[in-house]
Design goal:
The chain contains 16 helices and five strands. With 356 residues, it is an alpha/beta fold. α11 runs antiparallel to α12, α12 (260-271) packs across α13 and α13 runs antiparallel to α14.
Length: 356
């Protein structure tokens, strides 16, 4: 079945242009926000909206505000159209719920790429939603936690992580392997052995791939930038922690019934950019107030990132990376976890080399 796309623009020329670009989709058109709302009411299964901001009767901003008032419309994915000099409008539109933007004059290749990405994301969201509905009919209270965990984790990974190459495939494998090695070593320590049971470690390893899942919500121009981010771009990139944690929180049944696996995943996502000295983000949590999954992921993620080459930096040697970890004991990293990491650094480095 063809995806259904609503195009909202007061320019008949632009409407015709976009329709001609999207002949393999089922396109519906509207010339202002009010007409677009009517079209949405008549067509409940719209997959994507392409929205101009400057229109008579009801402009794009007013239209987005109206969508936000209705729960059933809030999940509609909207790409806004802006001109080159309308950066403030882009930001305002994104804050009102748009998921992306494209600038006029419209480039067909760029438009098609964004449409493909967001249709895949929408398909993934609907699959998660459908699976959760089925979950309610298929499971009873005794096994709900287990199946909910499998549903949320597996669908989030398959449906979202595969859509955009957030990190390399090998980065995910390496961090999973290193988390297991480090956690098993800490299991021998008196301080950690009661918490790091085999079941806990297995759950931790299983959700490790979700640590950067929130980058799905970061705009392409930042996520895929082939250079170091500036201050404003980095501020936007940091929001991936919030996006990732919320993607799981939105799927749980209630705060009182959060499955253990999902609790671990949320703690890992929210805590992996916090620093032991309280100077991390997003919440500037300090010391052991940072949940254990976050403290573990922090050191593994940094170690892998420092050893890996990026478009904006060269890779560092194992020894230089160890020097940084030693210097950051009690600053960036939990000193007990950093000490354990250093004890088995050769073993961890072998994991890195094996999956490089």
């Amino acid at each position: 079945m063809k995806a259904k796309i609503l195009v909202v623009d007061d320019s008949k020329t632009d409407l015709l242009l976009i329709e001609n670009m999207l002949t393999d989709f089922n396109t519906i058109t509207a010339e202002n926000g009010r007409e677009a709302l009517e079209k949405i009411n008549q067509n409940r299964n719209i997959d994507l909206i392409i929205l101009d901001l400057k229109m008579p009767v009801m402009n794009g901003f007013e239209f987005l505000k109206e969508l936000n008032k209705h729960r059933r419309y809030q999940k509609l994915r909207t790409i806004i159209l802006t001109n080159l000099d309308e950066i403030e409008n882009e930001i305002k539109g994104l804050k009102l719920g748009a998921v992306d933007y494209i600038r006029k004059p419209i480039n067909i290749e760029s438009l098609r790429l964004r449409i493909d990405i967001h249709l895949k994301l929408e398909k993934a969201r609907k699959k998660i939603e459908q699976d959760n509905i089925r979950l309610g009919y298929l499971v009873n209270k005794s096994n709900k936690d287990l199946m909910a965990t499998q549903d949320i984790t597996i669908n989030a990974l398959i449906g979202l992580l595969e859509v955009r190459d957030i990190e390399s495939h090998n980065h995910t494998i390496r961090t999973e392997k290193m988390i297991r090695v480090l956690a098993k070593h800490l299991q021998t320590k008196e301080k950690f052995k009661e918490v790091l049971t085999d079941d806990y470690i297995n759950a931790l390893v299983n959700v490790t791939p979700l640590h950067d899942i929130g980058k799905v919500g970061v705009p392409d121009k930042i996520l895929l930038k082939p250079a170091k981010l500036n201050k404003e771009e980095f501020a936007e990139m940091k929001k991936h922690v919030e996006y990732g944690a919320n993607s799981l929180k939105d799927e749980v049944f209630s705060e009182e019934e959060i499955p253990e696996h999902i609790k671990i995943a949320i703690e890992l996502i929210e805590g992996h950019h916090e620093k032991y000295n309280g100077k991390g983000y997003p919440n500037q949590i300090k010391g052991e107030n940072i949940p254990l999954p976050g403290r573990l992921m922090a050191i593994v993620d940094v170690y892998d990132a420092m050893l890996s080459k990026r478009v904006y930096k060269e890779s560092l040697s194992h020894q230089k990376t160890l020097k940084y970890i030693k210097e950051q004991k009690g600053e960036h990293f939990d000193p007990d976890i950093a000490a354990a990491f250093l004890e088995i650094n050769k073993k961890l480095h072998r994991v890195y080399k094996q999956y490089q």
